[in-house]
């Protein structure tokens, strides 16, 4: 809508803040700004996606809805929000909606900065930096890294007060009053010093008020029984992942069998990475593919935030993968709602980088389905084919492109009952031909995402019980992995791609990260390890003497360094409006970083040599 409210200059002149500007400055402000006429219900900005603008409410009313805190911040005519006015954490957590027909003046951040330079009288009325971040929070690629401090912090350091508990026989009214009096959003139910349940303000709103239940009912009737907990010595990062994966906002913290306290998503909101919690919650609330597609566009911004906060590559991979898992589960739920409940049990399985929890914003999809042996293709085939197609196409719409090798559940070969998967793995292990060896790089990195997890657990236990005993299979896998060497020339210098579209670059994914992933997979197969993440495999393998402690530390450090360079490179491209890729120009690195990259390649090369000696190709 393009009409402009009347007497706009007069309105600005009478405003308590903008009236401090000179008449010429107000004219410049209007010349560079845009007047918006919005209707009731219109969304001005979504959480985590606020443009770099300041908005002045000329007429009407705007609500900043914070779904985590279940709070609404109402702003009226004459008030402002956005750049210079709204802190970064609120921009990440609040949706902005018009609750009346509203006239806004949208002022670009660049215009605002110019006004500040010219009109110092304006400075006291803009309480936060123009980009919304508080001092010390990540603003550039050389940020303070406070996010990393949180992810390394123990949960016990986030507990703000002793546990607030009531017996399960307490009434709903008593619980509500306790929350109000103590200023908390949850109460734990305890009997004989045992944690039995958890009640949150959302439970009171959704399970009591919305259902019209009596306030005299025992709170146990509406509580979440046996809530998920974490040990107080666990890193805060684990709480973040638990909240994002399960769409929860409260995690009881334990000290052994004793309740130590409660950590909520609100306790983490000062850190940028907690936008993953809100993002996962938004995904859970979507009821259409279009809604999921819109939310998936925020994954790149999430990766940029994590990168700018210097979050480790290990943690970044887990956070980004958690969002992929959430999108996958919601697509499955929407498909099941349309097609009906599954006729037999199944499990949707992530493979490749998603299976390993090592995704970045540049990822395709690798997945499969393991179906209960009660599956009858003639009776059940059409259902599971339609389900898989809908989910895989939905992931593609969300930016996870179809696997070029068609290793997806929508491909008939990778949507099979447990008995067929047993035959697949038996063949791959006993007849390791080139195709089988290629498939091991995808289907030996499996993790259950949705459905009957026991189906995959049974399969993995059987496979990992076999692989350590088959030295010939392991020799083939090693020989195949050694075909991908790190890019070092005879003089130990980094060798660049010589021709083609990416000439003069290093392919960080295939030339650096993939060889480390291969090493981790080989260690896991040789020792029968259940770990799927590469770093976890390498660390566990050292504990079982599959490689030395020093080799484990070196290889994990090499993976972390190379992965961080990949994430930083992708972030820089996205900031330039370019699609993320894996091709690094060495000019992007300092001499110090180039030296570390060369050292990482040397570590990979050295450990490849060790495995080559353990499983010599002459044995094949």
User: Could you say which structural class the secondary elements and strand pairing correspond to?
Assistant: alpha+beta
- Overall geometry comes to globular
- The side-by-side strand order for the widest beta sheet comes to 1-8-3-6
CATH superfamily of the largest domain: Beta Polymerase, domain 2
Helical segment tally? Answer: 22
When the domains are counted, the total is 4
Q: Assign a percent range to the helix content.
A: 40-55%
The proportion of strand residues reads 15-25%
What is the CATH architecture assignment of the largest domain? 2-Layer Sandwich
Sheet with most strands: 4 strands, antiparallel
Q: Can you offer a commentary on this structure?
A:
The chain is α+β, with helices and mostly antiparallel strands and 620 residues long. It folds into 4 domains: 8-125, Jelly Rolls; 148-273, CBS-domain; 314-466, Beta Polymerase, domain 2; 470-620, Four Helix Bundle (Hemerythrin (Met), subunit A) (Up-down Bundle), CATH 1.20.120. The protein contains 22 helices and 21 strands. It has a 4-stranded antiparallel β-sheet with strand order 1-8-3-6. It has a 4-stranded antiparallel β-sheet with strand order 2-7-4-5. A 4-stranded mixed β-sheet has the order 9-10-11-12. Strand 4 and strand 5 (71-76) form a beta hairpin. The protein is globular. The model is unreliable at 1-6, 132-149 and 270-274 (pLDDT under 50).
Which secondary structure elements does this structure contain, and how are they paired or packed?
Blueprint: H1 8-14, H2 23-32, E1 34-38, E2 43-45, E3 53-59, E4 61-66, E5 71-76, E6 80-82, H3 88-93, E7 95-98, E8 102-108, H4 109-118, H5 146-152, E9 165-166, H6 172-182, E10 186-191, E11 194-200, H7 201-209, E12 224-225, E13 230-231, H8 236-246, E14 250-255, E15 258-264, H9 275-285, H10 289-296, H11 298-308, H12 313-339, E16 346-350, H13 352-356, E17 367-371, H14 377-397, E18 415-417, H15 418-430, H16 434-443, E19 447-451, H17 453-466, H18 471-481, E20 506-507, H19 508-527, H20 534-543, H21 549-575, E21 583-584, H22 591-614
Parallel strand pairs: 9-10, 13-14, 17-18
Antiparallel strand pairs: 1-8, 2-7, 3-6, 3-8, 4-5, 4-7, 10-11, 11-12, 14-15, 16-17, 16-19, 20-21
